Amino acid sequence: METYDIRFPTSRELDGSDAMNPDPDYSAAYLVLRTDAGDGVEGHGFAFTIGRGNDVQVAALDALRSHVTGRPVAELCADPGSLSRDLNGDSQLRWLGPEKGVMHMATGAVVNAVWDLAAKRARKPLWRLLADAEPEWLVSQVDFRYIADALTPQEALDLLRRGREGREARAADLVRRGYPAYTTSPGWLGYSDARLTRLAEEAVAQGFTQIKLKVGADLEDDVRRCRAARAAIGPGVRLAVDANQRWNVDEAIAWTKALAAFDPYWIEEPTSPDDILGHAAIRSAVAPVKVATGEHAQNRVVFKQLLQAGAIDVLQLDAARVGGVNENLAILLLAAKFGVPVCPHAGGVGLCELVQHLAMFDYVALSGTTEDRVIEYVDHLHEHFVHPVHVTGGRYRAPSAPGFSSAMHPASIATYTYPDGTFWAADLISGGETA
Ligand SMILES: [Mg+2]
């Protein structure tokens, strides 16, 4: 198991800027699992961070190494849930969570690397491996501790058995037509109105039926930007807005109502990701504007409560925030049980590459629908991936390469490893002026 601190200097173009994160340097705490199976197959995984602290995240990966190395690879790939349980169950590391924050993100990165390895060894893209799997085995991969009051193993089994009906036709449809996407690229807070308008018009021309704008720093600016965006896209395209946790509950309600004239489809992360009852209060006050959250929800327990409290209309799971594929299976099953659409969070570094597999599995073999479901798409940093996402006509095309699409090019790793990669070493000499 090798680990890397990889950082991209995205803050220099204000790519990714929002009301809470004005200058992100999109980063990955990255790991590679190698085996002695002799087939050259590797497992790649990562946690996404935005710069400072990526070294802390890498240290958390390193703390898990002893649980991973030395395991028989065939056994590990046949039951990634066993590793997931061991990582979550390390009684000393558990104190640093439990099941939240830096350690949990590290667990997710390691578990996802194992799923990448398993899918490559099975010679299937991950979405296909999951969609082909027996419902009983999928249920065995889920940790029902703390969620069994909302979803029992038997209910999960029933959902998966029902989800399999017609899956071949849906898999064929997915391969033929792809999965709907929406784009956040026009809406970063640091972009000028002219750039916003141009990118919004381009998005509609490219076939997107939903775009998203960052809001929450200044109400007058938001009114002006939402007006510009709505004028650019017309009435028939959905306009989502995202406050990135900026507000108190009452502010969120007032601010969202002040933008209602522009017909926002959802308000995303209106307040603290931990505030379940706050989201419920906002939702009841701002309807028919939908409430969406989840990219910072720490684990399946928070998602369970958001659903139980009727606090969200849209569930935005993230592939690299929680404890990996196993926990995201639990979250997809909870969403299916409560009938709430999943519109995954993506962007960052490689999050689009990962999360497409989970949404596609959900369509083919669980919820069985793409209605009111879209995967976030941001057109940044894909060139660093060996199998980048392919989005055309406003839709993600189904990946065909084996694995989890998580591997970066070795040259990108060598260039952007911090602080000794070639980019950062040169940057240090030039005093931070390297573009
Ligand atoms: Mg967001």
TrEMBL record:
Keywords: Lyase, Magnesium, Metal-binding
InterPro entries given in the database record: Enolase-like_C_sf, Enolase-like_N, Enolase_C-like, L-fuconate_dehydratase, Mandel_Rmase/mucon_lact_enz_CS, Mandelate_racemase_C, Mandelate_racemase_N_dom, RHMD-like
Reaction equations catalysed: L-fuconate = 2-dehydro-3-deoxy-L-fuconate + H2O
Domain Mandelate racemase/muconate lactonizing enzyme C-terminal: residue ranges: 193-289
E.C. number(s) listed in UniProt: 4.2.1.68
Keyword Hydrolase in record: no
Region (Disordered): 1-21
SUPFAM superfamilies listed in its UniProt record: Enolase C-terminal domain-like, Enolase N-terminal domain-like
Named cofactor requirement(s): Mg(2+)
Gene3D superfamilies xrefs: Enolase-like C-terminal domain, Enolase-like, N-terminal domain
Entry protein name: L-fuconate dehydratase
Taxonomic source organism: Streptomyces zhihengii
